[in-house]
Design goal:
The complex is a heterodimer of chains A (178) and B (543).
Chain A lengths: L2 H7 L1 H13 L4 H9 L7 H18 L4 H15 L6 H5 L5 H8 L7 H50 L17
Helix pairs in contact in A: 2-4, 2-7, 4-5, 5-8
Chain B lengths: L6 H8 L26 H6 L21 H15 L1 H9 L11 H6 L6 H16 L1 H6 L10 H11 L7 H5 L6 H13 L6 H13 L7 H19 L14 E4 L2 H5 L3 H19 L3 E3 L15 H18 L3 E4 L4 H13 L26 E3 H10 L15 E3 L3 H7 L3 H10 L30 H7 L1 H14 L3 E4 L2 H14 L4 E4 H8 L27
Parallel strand pairs in B: 1-2, 1-3, 3-4, 5-6, 6-7
Helix pairs in contact in B: 3-4, 4-10, 6-10, 8-10, 12-14, 14-23, 15-16, 16-18, 17-19, 19-23
The chains are: A mainly alpha (178), B mainly alpha (543).
The complex binds iron/sulfur cluster (SF4) (2 copies).
The site of one iron/sulfur cluster has 16 residues of chain B, from helix 6, helix 9 and helix 10.
């Protein structure tokens, strides 16, 4: 059996471990809640994370394209990008898949071909990390843009339409009500 | 394989685990993106609020008055005596944890101190230490701790991570309302000049000019006049709002956000069209006020006294104009203030009449005492009596879901009326999951004065449970419009949607009413109020 097939056979065990590791990046009380509450509306962080990891793992095994991988990771990273994590902490969970796979398949990692397969799989995980990092950056950019747009778009555009203020330039000097 | 790292080692090196110390030992970390800027001293001075000064939440020194602990202790004591509910809430929590995972800020941020029970413990621990024998004797073992600078900073950080939405109270077997505890916490912080600017400056604006944005009366009127042109462009009908008119039957008050901020402006046009329609058909007589130009009340997020000062102008203006009663626009916290406080705070308004709809004759029993009727109830009653000619198909491009704004839903039980109106003006309406609507509705994540820009991470995290439910109906039913009856919602949902579900727009109830409303003498509508072409009507000139 090829390594990838063995990994696939352990899918649910691996995803479970992976999820537990991600949950453990939160404080203890929070982690307990994330793991125990199964209602996706009462526990959007836990349930979104779990289904995202499952989808990401499937994408990895199937050698899916970057777009598919990004779709799986986006909901998880979108959440972590607004929580108390540094960029590294928000995305490093992807790398954590490597030691999980190694440990789960420890006994089966014998012979050169198994190692070659492992290296191949791990390179795919590295790639996935980069995809994750791009998502993280896009989320942060959106956040900054939202901050910038806040005043300009909502309030001042209403004034501008009414001719009460003129927005001087795109970067905009602060408009004064006339 | 023995050289390869185990998941546990790997994770301890690379993955982050926040301190799992007891909450009392976990120091507060005031994180960028989560807090709002400190109040501008100029605004505090206008309000004669104490200890106005420049200070920065992330700096070590908050420039507190020397006797700050004493001020807090006395303030705490005074409030325990004045507010029975506060005292009861301090005493009766059994720490059962039923509320713990019900707060959108806990769910979204994952920070345990956002569990309602812990948020309340921040105050309760000091209460035990200062005011109970038990706490004085047992100290920490009894859950008590003295007020220190670190505790103060923790109070400040977490009192401004609560939107006073009351969701937690729905699940508490004792009915403990953590929102009320936050209200007290903020009041105490205000004794030391520790407000946030997003609240203090709107309050001072409102105090000076009558609305949060500090817009002068003439600009308020200019804005409405501009809407008159816009409405004419879309419908061919010229509406004629009246301002500050003495002797009108009814005074209309709405949050200034409806007048000045998109997309609330379209809801404002909706009110104007409805009033015009009712005047043409039934002789309805209503006036706007450029002085009571704010329905919202950020004073409510400051202190009881400030709330009272800002609220007073509603009755004062009603009295000055000699109207019979007041009709109120689509707002959230404005209704909590009206429903829960106004009557006893600035009332009784016995110079006003018990509200009766001049068109249907319906007595608004819920407003008997406050004399102020919610426009959702007013319009639902009109529809119920067949008084509005509506063409639902004009909203066919919308697949609508409805967000119960916390205050009208939990604060006054306004659950059916907005839904009834939506069903009568739209063909496509889909509810979000049961445990995210009605009494259990999830807050927008930006209420109670937290709708600033600098705390965007907090807002996005706090709004996640709401957005997650919207995403669900978007994926299931293709929902593309989130309707609400709150001006803060209309202001904060567009960025929330943009981050989590960018395909969904935001609207007020009366924007949809106006789109469906068949105005006497109108042109065939080709666009909605936003100027977007209506399905199947583009360039269609057949009559
Ligand atoms: S009132 Fe709302 S924001 Fe405040 S603790 Fe309760 S659930 Fe959280
Ligand atoms: S549900 Fe009520 S009694 Fe239970 S911990 Fe929360 S506030 Fe305390």
């Amino acid at each position: 059996m090829k390594l990838i097939e063995r990994v696939a056979a352990q899918q649910s065990a691996i995803v479970k471990k992976w999820f537990e590791l991600v949950a453990a990046t939160y404080p203890e009380d929070t982690a307990r809640f994330l793991k125990s509450q199964k209602d996706p509306f009462a526990n959007p962080v836990g349930q979104t994370t779990f289904s995202g990891l499952k989808a990401a793992f499937t994408a990895l095994l199937e050698g899916a394209d970057a777009q598919t991988q990004a779709e799986a990771l986006d909901p998880i990273i979108r959440i972590r990008a607004v929580q108390a994590f540094s960029p590294g902490q928000a995305t490093v969970f992807i790398l954590a898949l490597k030691p999980i796979i190694r440990e789960t398949l420890k006994k089966e990692l014998t012979g050169d071909s198994a190692y070659a397969d492992l290296l191949d799989l791990e390179s795919r995980i590295d790639e996935m990390l980069l995809i994750g990092f791009d998502i993280y950056l896009k989320c942060r950019e959106t956040l900054f843009q939202l901050k910038v747009d806040l005043e300009k778009n909502r309030i001042y555009h209403a004034f501008e339409r009414a001719g009460i203020v003129t927005l001087e330039s795109e970067e905009g000097a602060t408009p004064e009500p006339q | 394989m023995k050289d390869l790292p185990k998941p546990k080692d790997f994770y301890s090196r690379l993955m982050h685990r926040p301190g799992s110390t007891d909450w009392m030992d976990t120091p507060v970390d005031i994180r960028k993106g989560m807090y709002c800027y400190a109040a501008n001293p100029k605004s505090l001075n206008i309000l004669s609020a104490p200890f106005a000064r420049d200070w920065n939440p992330v700096e070590e020194d908050w420039k507190l008055p020397e006797n700050w602990q004493q001020i807090l202790h006395e303030g705490f004591k005074e409030r325990l005596e004045r507010f029975r509910s506060f005292k009861v809430f301090m005493d009766i929590c059994v720490r059962c944890g039923a509320c713990a995972d019900k707060c959108h800020f806990f769910i979204g941020t994952g920070d345990p101190k956002n569990m309602p029970v812990l948020r309340a413990e921040l105050l309760r621990s000091v209460y035990r230490n200062d005011f109970t024998t038990f706490g004085k004797i047992l100290g920490r073992v009894g859950g008590a701790r003295p007020m220190t600078l670190n505790v103060l900073k923790e109070w400040w950080y977490y009192m401004f991570q609560c939107s006073e939405c009351r969701r937690c109270s729905v699940f508490c077997p004792y009915g403990i309302d953590t929102a009320e505890i936050t209200i007290m916490g903020r009041e105490l912080l205000n004794l030391l000049g520790l407000n946030i600017d997003w609240i203090a400056t709107p309050v001072s604006n409102c105090y000076m000019t009558g609305n949060h944005l500090g817009i002068q009366p003439h600009a308020y009127k200019d804005m409405l006049d501009f809407f008159v042109d816009d409405i004419e462009e879309v419908t061919g009908v010229r509406v004629e709002p009246s301002f500050n008119r003495k002797g009108a039957d009814i005074l209309f008050i709405t949050p200034s956000g409806d007048v000045f901020a998109d997309p609330g402006t379209y809801t404002c046009m909706g009110y104007m069209m409805l009033f015009h329609y009712l005047r043409e058909k039934y002789g309805f007589d209503i006036t706007w006020s450029t002085y009571a130009s704010e329905g919202g009340n950020f004073g409510f997020f400051t202190s009881h006294e400030t709330m009272k000062r800002l609220n007073a102008k509603m009755y004062a203006e009603a009295k000055r104009l000699g109207v019979k009663w007041i009709l109120g626009g689509e707002c959230g916290h404005m209704w909590r203030v009206i429903n829960q406080y106004m009557d006893t705070m600035n009332g009784p308004a016995d110079f006003l009449e018990e509200p009766v709809s001049p068109i249907t004759g319906t007595k608004f029993e819920n407003a008997k005492s406050t004399k102020m009727v919610h426009i959702a109830e007013f319009t639902a009653d009109l529809i119920r009596h067949g008084k509005l000619e509506l063409d639902k198909s004009r909203n066919n491009h919308l697949k609508v879901t409805y967000h119960d704004s916390c205050n009208p839903a939990r604060g006054m039980g306004l659950l059916e009326e907005p839904r009834y109106v939506i069903r009568n003006v739209c063909n496509h309406f889909y509810e979000m999951p049961e445990n995210t609507i009605r009494e259990q509705t999830f807050c927008c994540g930006s209420g109670a004065g937290l709708n600033a820009g600098e705390n965007m991470e907090l807002r996005m995290a706090g709004g996640l449970p709401r957005a997650n439910a919207v995403k669900h109906v978007h994926e299931q039913h293709g929902v593309n419009m989130l309707a609400c009856i709150c001006a803060i919602d209309r202001a904060v949902f567009p960025p929330l949607m943009e981050y989590w579900v960018p395909e969904v727009g935001v609207t007020g109830l009366h924007e949809m009413v106006a789109n469906a409303l068949v105005m006497p003498g109108e042109n065939k509508r080709e666009t909605d109020l936003r100027g977007e072409p209506l399905e199947g009507m583009e360039g269609d000139t057949d009559e």
